[in-house]
Amino acid sequence: MNIKKFQTVSFFLVALLIFASCSPKVYVQKDDTANLANYKSFAWVETKETHEQKGHNDIQENKIRNAVSAELIKAGWREDTTKPDAVLAYDVLVEKTIKRGSNSVYSQPFSRVYFNRYTRRMGTIYYPSQFMGYSNTQYQVNEGTLTISFIDAQTDKMIWQGWTTEEVNTKLFTDKEIQVSVRNIFRKFDVAKR
């Protein structure tokens, strides 16, 4: 492999690692007795509580459901409102939290000019910056948690649940945040099916 090709491949691998480390963490819980490969159809659960939630938004609900449905259809599932294998529910929680940060503080480097009387010349002594400690900060952010739950339609037993938490700018998830969160959750769903 020539050097230019090697540099290009190396650049993309480093960029991929950086982007992967920046993505929010996804958590899942699965019923060990449930085999997700046996489930092929789904329907959304309609609860009165969902529509009575403070800040309920029909547009956001449709976008979340469409994003989840699209991921399931890609995985080979189909929507069946009459006799589904699994019933789906989601929950969105946006709350204010305090983030804490800590930054290193260093002194300014400087130099000092002096006269050497033995050589009869001017000399310079350089003093590099030194570690002085840490500067601690804290600030308030909105954290949004999206949870997707799968319930067995026959037994009403929870079989799988995935959730992710990330910083959001508003009290509602944006279209992009919904897409990214759902995609991240379903990466773990593929692993759970095996």
Structure description:
Helix 3 runs parallel beside helix 4. The protein has helices at about 5-20, 50, 60-75, 175-194, and strands at about 25-30, 40-45, 80, 85-105, 110-115, 120-125, 130-150, 160-170. With about 190 residues, the protein is of the alpha/beta class. The strands form 2 sheets. It has a 6-stranded mixed sheet with strand order 1-8-7-4-2-3, with helices on one face. It is built from 4 helices and 8 strands; from the N terminus they run αββααββββββα.
Report the oligomer. single chain
Major beta sheet summary: 6 strands, mixed
Portion of residues in helices?
25-40%
Give the low-pLDDT segments.
none
Order of helices and strands: HEEHHEEEEEEH
Beta-strand level of the residues, as a percent range? 35-45%
Q: Taking all residues together, what is the mean pLDDT?
A: 81
Structural class given helices, strands, pairing?
A: alpha/beta
N- and C-termini, Cα separation: 36 Å
Brief account:
The chain has 194 residues and is of the alpha/beta class. It is built from four helices and eight strands, in the order H-E-E-H-H-E-E-E-E-E-E-H.
Which labels suit this protein?
alpha/beta; six-stranded mixed β-sheet; two-stranded antiparallel sheet; 194 residues
Secondary structure topology:
Layout: H1 3-22, E1 26-30, E2 41-44, H2 48-52, H3 58-74, E3 78-79, E4 86-106, E5 110-116, E6 121-127, E7 131-152, E8 158-168, H4 175-193
Parallel strand pairs: 2-3, 2-4
Antiparallel strand pairs: 1-8, 4-7, 5-6, 7-8
Helix pairs in contact: 3-4
